[in-house]
Amino acid sequence: VSLSFLVESSIGASSMNFGKSPARLLTKDRNKVTFKDVAGCDEAKEELQEIVEFLRDPTKFTALGAKIPKGVLCIGAPGTGKTLIAKAVAGEADRPFFFISGSDFVEMFVGVGASRIRDMFAEARKCSPCIIFMDEIDAVGRHRGGGVGGGHDEREQTLNQLLVEMDGFDPSEGIILIAATNRPDVLDKALLRPGRFDRRIVIDLPDVKGRMEILKVHARKIKMDASVDLMDIARNTPGASGADLANILNEAALLAARKGRSAVTNLEAREACDKVRYGKERRSLEIDANEKKTTAYHESGHAIVGLFVKYADPVDKVTIIPRGFSLGATHFMPKKNRLSYWKRELLDQLAVLMGGRVAEEVFVGDISSGAQMDITQATKLARSMVCEWGMTDSLGTVAYDERSDSGMYLGSAGMQERTYSDETAKYIDGEVRKIIDEAHLRATEIIKEHRDQVQLMTEMLMEFETLDRKDVEEISKGVWDIANKRARLKAQEELQKKTPPPAPILNKEQPFPPGAAGTSEPQQV
Ligand code: ADP
Ligand code: ZN
Fold this sequence. Notes:
It contains 18 helices and nine strands. It has helices at residues 42-56, 58-62, 82-93, 112-127, 138-141, 154-168, 189-192, 208-219, 230-235, 242-258, 266-278, 289-308, 343-364, 372-387, 422-449, 451-464, 469-477, 482-497; strands at 24-26, 71-76, 97-101, 130-135, 175-181, 199-203, 315-319, 329-332, 466-468. It has a six-stranded mixed beta sheet. The chain has a three-stranded antiparallel beta sheet with strand order 8-7-9. The longest helix has 28 residues, at 422-449. It is globular. The chain binds adenosine-5'-diphosphate and zinc ion. Zinc ion is lined by residues 298, 302, 356, 371, 374, 525.
């Protein structure tokens, strides 16, 4: 049994094998992926169940005259499991799976892509019922005529061939094309016409419950000790894709192996989480004491404002260990899965963002460039409040914005035009400025009122470098005892010395409160 093979081309050897289809075939006894390996994505699985039934026994459908869609378009961000779920469809039905990527067709020679498409379909016909999976279909399927070089370029021929093949086969032949993209907006209209990709499946980034399930699927393959709290990782990784989560667990296993442990402990899991999200710790980075202290004030400023405003998420961790591009960080743990933001939460968040800079002003007497990200984030937030969410009285509930940051909404026209006058533009800038100034003022008041706590937290950061949730709570409540902290650290160290036997992680499942869904923004300031 071969894992992959190349299909002979029609152009043949005389033209240096250019026509060979780069499609890889996963034969049915090689493909062991089933729906069990795909965590979450319940709606997608439900939609695809019918396709599975069809592949198993097409006559059941054709006898009744039912038509199965020829094409399924999977839409979702990279790493959300589009390939995985397509493989699982083939695995569930126990049928062959052809894999090809749109980017494989990006060739210099006109006609090569088209012949590859022809070959692939010819080969698939021999193995039907089967699945052809085309990743990154947008690489071939971009709307025509938009590119340089006029209308007769290579990509257009490839796309035409794909359309010809799709129209050419009868659903009863049992070939189903599953295509994946994260840019449905750039696809050629012809692809989306009825009779082609009639079924669309959107795969979102997982919410906290989905993340937990994905972690459980991947935890099966890794030796873990009972101290690992998968729910903790799930809660800490808003915005992570399935691929990111698989990566986190793998990183944790690598770290544990490097340390010579017999199983992954919570320490490695947390570390891997931070590493994948924010970049590797840079303990070796040389930082002079002054810089360190400024960073400590800055982070304490964020944390203290976060602890004393009413609607901010709880502070989870404050650290001055540099990681990735930042010199320090204050992490907030989302209490719930955010589906929308309320004005009062946003105002509090803006104050928290200002907290870092304000602490520098109050305690250091000068300001550093370290607040750059905070300022960018705050400005974006305030602008959205004014322009998109209608949160200012003076400008009313009118949408003013040209959305351009995601690229998703630009369409084919390129830059969109501004729809408001210069006067309004000035007014918007004024309102944004006002919101930020107010947040700055609030942060200043809080920091001046809790001067002692900022000072204490800064000193403790200088000593311990990282403070956890319990530490910051004690500091904010005025019950901090450094001896307690030292004892806690010592106990932790003891625990780490012993390497407990691996425990089956699957029994450690935690109940998840019902009704939570969606994703919330990762928060780190
Ligand atoms: P895409 O095709 O959407 O870019 P992939 O299917 O290639 O994403 O996903 C990459 C990897 O991420 C998978 O091989 C799998 O290990 C992991 N993964 C993604 N989504 C899931 C999921 N829902 N359940 C389990 N693993 C997942
Ligand atoms: Zn900051």
